[in-house]
Predict the 3D structure of the following.
Amino acid sequence: MTETVAAERAPTPDGNGEDRARFRSDVLEGLAARPRRFPSLWFYDEVGSRLFQRIAELPEYYLGRCEREILEREAGRIAAPFAGRPCTVVDLGAGDGDKTRVLLSRLNQGTPDLAYAPVDVSVAALRQVVAQTEREWPRLKVFPVAAEYAGALRRLHAREPGRALLVLFLGSNIGNLERAQAVALLRSLRTALGPGDHALVGFDLLKDLEVLRRAYDDREGVTAAFNLNLLARVNRELDADFDLSAFAHRATFDPVRPAMESWLVSLRRQRVHVAGRTFRLAEGEAIHTEISCKYREADIAAFAAESGFEERALLLDSRGWFADALWCAGG
Ligand code: AVI
C-alpha cells in the first residue's frame, strides 16, 4: 500500500512557492554574510540527488560501503527487538534507501506487520526509493514523507498505538549538522519515541586525513560537480548568472569541530546577479557550502547521554572507519 508522496513540505524545485521563497532568502542572506554561505540542504534537487548517488559509488567515498558492511553483519541484532511485533521503520534522509533495504529484508522475515516511511527533502529520491521498495516487497506498506527532519519527527507523535518504531539516521547525515543542531534533533527524536523504540544512527569516525580529503575531493570531480550544482541551481531557480567556470570546489579539514568542510572559491574578481541583487566577490573569496563532521567514540556516547537515549551497541566496520550506534528509548 502506498500513499502518494504526501509532502508536509517539499523544499525542492518541484516543491511549493513557500520553499522557493525560503531558498531565495537563504541564498540572499548567505551571500550577504561573511564568510558567505549556502545551507547544504539545498544540494538535493534532482540533479544534486543524482550526483550524490554517484558520489556514493566512488572508490574514495567509503562511508556507504562501511555502513553496508555493518548492516549486513548486524541486521539480525538490529532486528531482534522487533521480532513478532508490528513495526515501522522511519528512514531520516533516506536518499536512495539502498542500505536500508538490508535491514528491511531482515525485519520482513520476523515482523508480522512491517511499514516503511522514507523521509527526504528530495521528491525525486523518494519516488525512486518507493518504486524500488515496492518492486522488492510488493506487500510492504510504504509511506514516503517529503519533509525536513523536524517535520518528520513531529509526525511521529501521531504514531499508531502498539506499533514499535525503528528510526534510522544513517550515512552520517548527522555530520552535516552543527553539534548544537544535532543534539536538538536527537532530543526531539527521543521525545517522539516511546518505551522500547530504537534509533540507529550512523557516524563517520575521525581517521587518516588523506582518506578524508580524498573522500571529499575525488579524482573524477563528482564531488566538485555536486558542490558546483548549488550555483547552477541558483541560476536555474533564482534568475542568477553565476559563471560556474569561475568557481572551484575546495575541501578543507577543520581540526576543531572536527569536520571536512566544502567551499566554492571564486577564481577571479567578479560580479554576480541573483534575484535582482548584485554581489561582488574578490579573487580567492570562498562560499561555505557544507560541514561533514567526523567523530570519536566518546562523542557518540556523549550524544546518547545528552539526548536521553540508552546505548545498546556501537557497531563498527572491520576497518573501524564508521560506526552505527544502536540506541533505545527507555521507559
Ligand atoms: C549526505 N552527507 C552525509 C554527505 C557527507 O559525507 O557529508 C554529503 C556529501 N558531501 C560531499 N560528499 C558527500
